[in-house]
Amino acid sequence: MFNVKSIPTLPIGIHCYERGVYLRVTTHSRSWLYKYQLNGKRRELGLGSADQPLSAVLAKVAPLKALVAQGIDPKDQIAREKAEKKAAEVKSSMPTFSEYVDHAFEKILYLRGFTGAKTEVAWRCDIGVLKGAFGKQRLDAIHRDDVASFLRQWWTTKPRRGKDLRMRLYGILNVAKGEGLIQSNPAEWKGCLDASLPPMGLVRRSMPEKHHTAITPEELRELIGKLWMEDKVSSLAVVFGALTAGRANEYIKGKWDEIDLEEKTFSVPQERRKDKKPYPHVVPLTRQLLRLIDRLDTSGDYLFQGRGRSAINQGTALYAIKHASGRDDMTLHGLRSTFSDWCAKNEKNFLVSEKQLMHAVGNNVFRAYQRDDLLEQRRKLMQEWADYLLPNV
Fold it and tell me: From CA 372, how far away is CA 350, in angstroms rounded?
């Protein structure tokens, strides 16, 4: 035991003032401690510097002793009080869904690095729908039943739409969870929505699966022959897409400096590659494609130049194929499926045709060893394909 006057002169060590109240002296500091035993375990709590009045120290100790007498650990009590205080602070500053969603989407854009403008546009459209449903709710007030009730209007009738909206909402709320605003994500499937909605696999088994419309190779040959005879840049763009089996974004925005007439190639740059690999995708130019290129306007930067020296848009090319075919369900992407079907029916090398489609084949190990772009094999394949579609050119 010691008295207050001796505090400045006490040697290094732990000194008892009264039962449970101690002073710890080190080479650099002097501080008060509360030592107690609960459920057979010895514990201690810091009470602050020795500079404070002793009356203040004893005032801190009194409620701590009362808690121990009740069998309550003061450390646990303090932790609970801090957590409750923090939760109250977070709750008071909790944003609504509408206030938070734009920030979350900017973070998603940064983290996900969407490869096409269409994906970003689709996200923004769906965010508008989500704002209408959850906009005024605080993030921590959105619960599983709210999400399930919102999704039911699409889940079994338009499952693709329902899935997209759930994934958008999940992504936004996951950002909020990562930033510590909410503790759980009510748009999570496993252990959450799976108790309120049927699994998507079960829903889809009861509905016919829809793909991009793909006409037969014979139908495409007739269509391409018709488009070839039209002196329109949009029609020639469709022919170019069919002959290369490319994605619309790859060839419609094609530029003259991507054409190498000497090597007879068209190079799709990294920024237009769907897989974003850091090098161009080289497309062989067939005899028919070289004839097509001779018919294009070379006064601007783009192969398929529209008004104002900019490239035509995909809608223009889509209208051309729909008008020529007389079918409103035609798509530009479906031409790739027709090419794939033709390759399969004619037993063409699968790896070569998939390389032309810019598809990844095999697992990571296979792709690590198979890195050649098989240009010469693709050149032969695409000439056979062009000879099938336009045999008289």
Answer: 15
The DSSP-derived string for 239-267 is HHHHHHT--HHHHHT-BGGGEETTTTEEE
pTM of the model: 0.56
Query: What amino acid is encoded at 76 in this protein?
Result: D
For residue 184, which of 221, 147, 214 has the smallest C-alpha distance?
Answer: 147
SS3 of 34-72: the string is EEEEECCEEEEEEEEECCCCHHHHHHHHHHHHHHHHCCC
The arrangement of strands across the sheet holding 41-49 comes to 13-18, 21-25, 30-38, 41-49
Ramachandran assignment for 113, one of left (phi > 0), alpha (psi -120 to 50 degrees), beta (any other) = left
Give 257-270 pLDDT, tens digit per residue. 999 999 999 999 99
Question: Six-digit token pair at 216?
Answer: 């037969």
Residue pLDDT, tens place only, 182-213: 999 999 999 999 999 999 888 877 765 555 56
**What per-residue confidence (pLDDT) applies to 352?**
93
Q: Is 78 helix (H, G, I), strand (E, B) or coil?
A: helix
> What span, in angstroms and rounded, lies between the C-alpha atoms of 242 and 321?
11
